Amino acid sequence: xxxxxxxxxxxxxxxxxxxxxxxxxxxxxxxxxxxxxxxxxxxxxxxxxxxxxxxxxxxxxxxxxxxxxxxxxxxxxxxxxxxxxxxxxxxxxxxxxxxxxxxxxxxxxxxxxxxxxxxxxxxxxxxxxxxxxxxxxxxxxxxxxxxxxxxxxxxxxxxxxxxxxxxxxxxxxxxxxxxxxxxxxxxxxxxxxxxxxxxxxxxxxxxxxxxxxxxxxxxxxxxxxxxxxxxxxxxxxxxxxxxxxxxxxxxxxxxxxxxxxxxxxxxxxxxxxxxxxxxxxxxxxxxxxxxxxxxxxxxxxxxxxxxxxxxxxxxxxxxxxxxxxxxxxxxxxxxxxxxxxxxxxxxxxxxx
Length: 352
Known about the structure:
There is one protein chain. With 352 residues, the chain is an alpha+beta fold. The protein has a single domain (40-349), classed as Roll (T-fold), CATH 3.10.520.10. It contains 9 helices and 19 strands. It has helices at 18-21, 62-83, 91-97, 108-123, 133-138, 153-159, 191-205, 299-312, 314-324, and strands at residues 2-8, 28-32, 41-48, 51-58, 104-105, 168-170, 176-179, 211-215, 218-222, 231-236, 245-251, 254-260, 265-268, 271-274, 277-278, 283-284, 289-296, 327-334, 337-342. The strands form 5 sheets. Strands 3-4-8-9-12-17-18-19 form an 8-stranded antiparallel beta sheet, with helices on one face. A hairpin with a 2-residue loop joins β8 (211-215) and β9. The chain is globular, with a radius of gyration of 20 Å. Residues 6-39 have low confidence and may be disordered. One of its GO terms (molecular function) is metal ion binding. It is found in: Cell inner membrane. It catalyses: L-threonyl-[protein] + FAD = FMN-L-threonyl-[protein] + AMP + H(+). It is an enzyme of class 2 (transferase).
């Protein structure tokens, strides 16, 4: 039988429309390693949040297995209906349309995501910022569509007053939101990870303790495969126009997310503009960090932390990962190729 190896293709787009993603998104690799109890692994896959998802679990109840796909589909619909900026009637779209100062009660899931997002914004000094959406759109990486020419300095300056995570005001218990200004909230750098966590919760509530869940390359693994081994994950090398594996890791009981700047960009006069926008400068990142993979207790945190680290750059990102108590692999561009930076514990996950 085939041993499953999930490939982490770095998040190369910050928006959710399926039409833009179907041709290039995340693949599964099958590595033949001899016969195992593969028949005990049950799977379900489909499309959500403008990308693909895959759920695999070690079966213990055939009847429960039959019920799970419908439950998985409905859970993902509910999250999309809450957090999508592409659905005109989603909870988040309605919030973005509210006038500043209008209080609104949040659904429990949206309240939890916003609370965690603001925590990471604080710890990263704003490198992660859910209000950066207007700049992402201006640079052609949001719902307004692609551009081939960089925006003017005047256009960028005009949007700066709308940016700032401190303009998202939550009540003390996190259940109510007030926008302090004309802000636009975009959760695309944390919502997929949160969706992974919710799917993991669904599986665990069904009595499943060994699984691998993936949405758009963000993953969460728990327990062991039927052969007693950890789940294997392939991390993609940040090479433009190619699909190569940089590293393979073996994991359990962890959330995994990757971010990179080498697939979603545009060029003008020989200058490449990344889709990752630095909220502080209102410009695409220009440092040498090509990609980052983060291992964290939950996938929502891994998702947001990976984005924050891409903004911070190599040295600051490494220090930030250590401060946050997570493991990370940073791949940095050099004149002759790439070099790797690993936090102290990341090497423990490597498959040699």
